[in-house]
Write a structure and sequence with these properties.
By secondary structure, the protein is α/β, with parallel strands linked by helices. It is built from 9 helices and 8 strands. Helix 2 packs across helix 9, helix 5 packs parallel to helix 6 and helix 7 crosses helix 8. The structure holds adenosine monophosphate (AMP).
Length: 251
C-alpha cells in the first residue's frame, strides 16, 4: 500500500478536498502516535502510513506551512511566535485548527495523528470531535526508549549549517568529519541537542505528555511500543501490536 500523499484538506482546512477513495482501502486505521523527541516517531509515522495506506496528519506541519503566509491572523501570529520560542501553542487555538479540519477525522482513508493531542485537554477535545464525526480511535501507539539512549541518539546528531541535512556521529557519519556530504557546509550541533537541553526537553515531555498516556491507558486505547532496533524492526513490532489488538476487538 502507499501512504495517502494528498494532504490538501489537512493543510488548507475548510472545504478543501483530497483524493482518498473508499475502494482503495479495505480497512481504515485511526491512530494517534505519542513519543518523546529522539525516539524516531517521525520515521515510524512515515512507515506506518505507507504500510496502512493512511494519511499523516501533523499539527506541527500545519503551523510550519502557515508560517509562510504573508498576513497571518492575530491568533495565528501569536501561535507562530509561541512555536518559535519552543513553547506549546495554546490548547484553544490548536483545537480550533483541528476542528476546522474535522472532515479529515472521518475520512475513508483513516488517519495517523502526530503531534496532536499533546495535553489531556486536547485529548478530551479530540474525543468530542471524533464522536461528532461518528468515528473512534483504533489505538494510541506510544513509543518508548530509556532516557540514556535518547540522550545518545540526540547528542550524536549533527545538522548541516547550510542545507540542514541531518547526520549522526556513529549511526550516520558524513564521509569527512564535520563536513556535509551534500553541500560541503559545516556540521553543527543544535543547541537543543546538547545533553543538558535534552534533559530539559525530556522533563517537559514527561510533564505534559505522560498524563496523556495515562488518559489513553485508562480508556484502554494505549499500546506501548519499545523503540529499540532499526526502523523496520520497530514498524514490524507496531504492526504486530495493531493486529493483536484488532483480533482482541473481534472476539
Ligand atoms: P512538532 O512538529 O509536532 O514538534 O510541532 C512543532 C511546534 O508546533 C511545537 O513545538 C509547538 O509549538 C507547535 N505545536 C504542534 N502541535 C501542537 C499541539 N498539539 N499543541 C501545542 N502546540 C503544538
Amino acid at each position: 500500500m502507499s501512504a495517502q500523499t494528498n494532504r490538501a484538506a489537512w493543510f488548507q482546512g475548510g472545504d478543501a478536498q483530497c483524493d482518498a477513495s473508499p475502494e482503495a482501502r479495505a480497512r481504515a486505521f485511526r491512530l494517534v502516535l505519542l513519543g518523546p523527541p529522539g525516539v524516531g516517531k517521525g520515521t515510524q509515522a512515515e512507515l506506518l502510513c505507507q504500510a496502512l495506506g493512511t494519511c499523516h496528519l501533523s499539527t506541527g506541519d500545519v503551523f510550519r506551512a502557515a508560517s509562510c503566509q504573508q498576513e497571518p491572523s492575530p491568533a495565528l501570529k501569536s501561535a507562530l511566535e509561541a512555536m518559535r520560542r519552543g513553547e506549546l501553542v495554546s490548547d484553544g487555538l490548536v483545537v480550533s485548527m483541528v476542528q476546522e479540519r474535522s472532515g479529515c477525522l472521518s475520512c475513508c482513508g483513516g488517519f495517523l495523528l502526530d503531534g496532536f493531542p499533546r495535553t489531556v485537554s486536547q485529548a478530551e477535545a479530540l474525543d468530542e470531535l471524533l464522536e461528532q464525526e461518528g468515528v473512534a480511535l483504533d489505538a494510541v501507539l506510544s513509543y518508548e526508549l530509556p532516557l540514556g539512549e535518547i540522550v545518545d541518539r540526540l547528542s550524536g546528531r549533527r545538522t548541516c549549517s547550510k542545507c540542514k541535512a541531518v547526520y549522526h556521529i556513529t549511526a550516520r557519519p558524513p564521509h569527512r568529519e564535520g563536513v556535509c556530504d551534500l553541500c560541503g557546509g559545516g556540521l553543527i550541533q543544535r543547541d537543543d541537542d546538547r545533553p543538558d537541553s535534552i534533559r530539559v526537553r525530556m522533563q517537559a515531555y514527561e510533564e505534559s505528555t505522560r498524563p496523556l498516556a495515562d488518559y489513553y491507558s485508562r480508556t484502554d486505547r494505549l499500546i506501548t511500543v519499545a523503540a529499540e532496533g532499526t526502523p523496520e524492526v520497530i514498524l514490524e513490532r507496531s504492526l504486530k501490536e495493531l493486529q493483536s489488538r484488532a483480533a482482541q476487538v473481534r472476539h
